[in-house]
Design goal:
Shape: elongated
Structural class: alpha+beta
Number of helices: 5
Distance between the termini: 129 Å
Helix content: 40-55%
Largest sheet: 6 strands, mixed
Strand order of the largest sheet: 2-1-4-3-5-6
Length: 206
Amino acid sequence: MHHLEDDELINAGEDKHMTRKSSKGHEAGKKKLSVILGLVVLVIMILGVLVPLFLALTGSSKYEVNAEGVYILSNGKWVKLDHGYSPWLPMDNSSYIVYFRNLNCPHCREFDLHWTEFLQKHSRDVNATFVMVVCTYFQLSCSDPTAISTFNAFQVTASPLLVVISNMTLLYYGVPPFNSTELYNFTYNLLKHVSSPETSSSGETS
C-alpha cells in the first residue's frame, strides 16, 4: 500500500540529493572561475614584462611620452621644455611639426601607433623639428603650465591635432593622417616646397 508519508520521504530524499549535486556544481564552478581569473592575471603579468621589453628592443619606447608637458625631439629622444606659464612658440624660421595629444583621448592612442612608426622610419627624412604637447584632457585636466599655455595659445579644442609651421607661417592645422606612410608623404610634400631662410636669401636677385 502506497502512503502519502512515503511520497513525502521519497521527495525529501530527492531534494537532499539534488541540493548536494547543486552544491557540488556550484563549488566546481567557483574553482573554474578561480582558475580562469588566475590565468588572466598571469597573462597580464607576462604582457607587462614582455611589452616594455619588446618596445625597448625595437626602439619604439623612446618615441613614446606618457606624461604631461611640452617636448622637443632631439637626437632621437624627447626633451621636456619648461617655459613656466609661457607657451611654447616657434622662435625662428625653421619648420616644425607639432602634435597636440591628450592622454585620455582614445583617438590619440590610436594615432600614437602611426606617429611612433612615422618617427622611427622618417624623422630624419623630414626637414623639421618635432614637438609634442601633452595634457591629460585639454586645459581642463592638465598640471603642466607650459602645456596648458601652449594648448591655449594654439586654441586646441580637438585631438589628435597636427600643426605644421614653417618660416613663421602656419601651413596646416587639423586632423593628422592615420597612417605612418601617408603622414610622411603629407608632411614631406607640405614642407619640400618651403624655402629655408638660407635658400630664400641666397636666391634673391637685385
